[in-house]
What does this fold into?
Amino acid sequence: METLARIRFLLIDMDGVLYRGGTALPGAPEFIQWLRRQRIRYLFVTNNSTRTPEQYVERLAQLGISAEAGQILTSSLATRAFLQNRAPRGTPIYLIGQEGLEAALLGDGYFVHDDRSPRFVVVGLDTRLTYEKLRRATLLIRAGATFIGTNPDRTFPSPEGITPGCGAILAAIEAATEVAPVIIGKPERWLFEAALQRLGAPPEQSAVLGDRLDTDIAGGKRLGLTTLLVLTGVHGPEHLRAASVQPDAVFADLPALLENWERTLSETRRPQLSQKGTHE
Amino acid sequence: METLARIRFLLIDMDGVLYRGGTALPGAPEFIQWLRRQRIRYLFVTNNSTRTPEQYVERLAQLGISAEAGQILTSSLATRAFLQNRAPRGTPIYLIGQEGLEAALLGDGYFVHDDRSPRFVVVGLDTRLTYEKLRRATLLIRAGATFIGTNPDRTFPSPEGITPGCGAILAAIEAATEVAPVIIGKPERWLFEAALQRLGAPPEQSAVLGDRLDTDIAGGKRLGLTTLLVLTGVHGPEHLRAASVQPDAVFADLPALLENWERTLSETRRPQLSQKGTHE
It folds into this structure.
């Protein structure tokens, strides 16, 4: 499969690809080990802004997947990269969000929290949201602060059911300010761009592996990445048939992807070896 | 002015018509006294769901305008009327809102608060809003409860600046549920319909007096009411020129309206009197 043969860098969505709820999906640890042996460089990429990389390392370890903090890229870290490219150390920001966002923006003191005259209002999911936070964000954006949203997801699944995500909070502030946020996460470009930058990866050798057509696949296409869909998450064959955006390749699950990829590599390598042999 | 001559019932918006911020607008007390002398029946009608009628009576009294609680119709009371027409006593509801909405729906025990399986989720402005309330509303609406919003106003003015209104909270819940609320307040029909019902007023003898083209005037036109705009509130001549919805008559302020109306009535009465005179 030509599509797989050229991939040297892989951006891996986690939820719906490596695990679902609290359970690892079949073949996830083996797939990551295989990537390492093949020297295909990868990052774990997520729209979720609430956790720190260290928390993800721990979570993956519980599922049998070993990862380092430097291999995790959250929308909070991509927001940090986006803002750091545009503002000097000491820039004041007003933040609505949880531990992951606070650590990424305020942890090392690069940005300073300010509820009077910040340059940016940065909003992620915050389960401690209050009206006062919405009011403050509205006043500050109306006074000229730039409105940034970590990710557009309007909902996320919880044990009790589907609950409001960052995108629902953004909708309230957008309604009150008449200003649309700059959104960092998938399907917008900034999270994937930060990932490519961290890997030093050229888009033509890079792929995104995800379970959602509207974020992973649409976002990957926007940057010219190869797009790989697995059907173990949110979107199944019926969504695929109805979708206007189509991935470059679709696999039932990670074992199916691994099998295809391995075969592709052994086929492309064998002729090269025998060619070399004939020249010696 | 023929438009004014036929009006026997008047729905009066308060903010921007009778007062602005904490100050009475010129001629407001005199205008209300004049309506009373003319036996033109009126209600004070507001999209604001947070206060009770008694609180409005007090507020108007401070501005020199005497009113009774029965002359105040808030979006909370219109929500009560709307729901009472559709659900029996004892119906469970989940409520997000302030004193005005709680008093209207729960005060006499007609509706019962229930956060497990309510038939309606009713949302007004709530300055004590939390993420937990948004989450609960989302779960309940996704489980089948009907989503009701008291009013669509996305912002309201406060001493500190423009702040999030009920419509901003509705936007968050709509984003998380993919369900649009039934909205009771202007420009939707239910608040004005409740007002006409309370007055026993036929639409063709009724008018709305307001300061906003998008709510008062648009909502009045929807019900076939005569629409009167005063330019003492949100919308000025420049908005009027740009608007697709046009009121039946426009006045600089309440004294100008009163002067016109008085002249109209004296002109229409004089010929009637002299006609009568000639027959006697």
